[in-house]
Design brief:
Flavocytochrome C3, Chain A, domain 2; heme; electron transport; Tetrahaem_cytochrome; metal-binding; about 160 residues; metal ion binding; mainly alpha
Length: about 160
């Protein structure tokens, strides 16, 4: 058990060192060779590298389920399952009514997408009653359910 912990700790330290020290220095050297970049551009690249390292540690080293990038802050990098699932250690998919806590009621969501033709949140078949997780998959690739029969060109987050 101690050996496994030591190996995991070593891997974490190596990844942190790469993300915090080695990779940003390599980026700076590359920047000097190519063109002058603004301080903001350099900071943004360094931030992306650090965030990639943090995500790698979360997803690979600790084996957490992937979380969509736009939900990382509310999920605390995948550690807050209770927010959507209602329990700390879920064994079943969440009740999609929990989506309304942040995104509003199905009526609210349909109103925000009313300019899309057809409105994916107010269909002629399901109205506003189709569960969110029919299309939106937090821990995997989202799929547009209506494409099973129709040829709409929507990108589902």
């Amino acid at each position: 058990m101690i050996k496994k912990t030591s190996v995991a700790l070593g891997a974490i330290l190596l990844l942190l060192a790469m993300g915090i020290f080695i990779v940003p220095n390599a980026l700076r050297a590359q920047d000097n060779a190519e063109k002058e970049k603004s301080v903001a551009e350099i900071d943004m690249e360094q931030h992306k590298t650090k965030q990639f390292t943090i995500d790698l540690i979360d997803d690979v080293v600790f084996g957490k389920l992937p979380v969509k990038s736009y939900h990382k802050k509310v999920h605390q990098n995948g550690a807050n399952c209770e927010l959507c699932h209602g329990v700390k250690a879920p064994t079943t998919p969440p009740d999609t009514r929990n989506c309304a806590n942040c995104h509003g009621t199905p009526e609210d969501v349909a109103k925000r997408t009313e300019k899309l033709e057809p409105n994916p949140h107010n269909s002629p078949h399901w109205a506003k009653e189709l569960p969110c997780d029919t299309c939106h998959k937090e821990h995997g690739k989202s799929e547009f359910y209506c494409k099973n029969c129709h040829h709409f060109d929507y990108q589902v987050p």
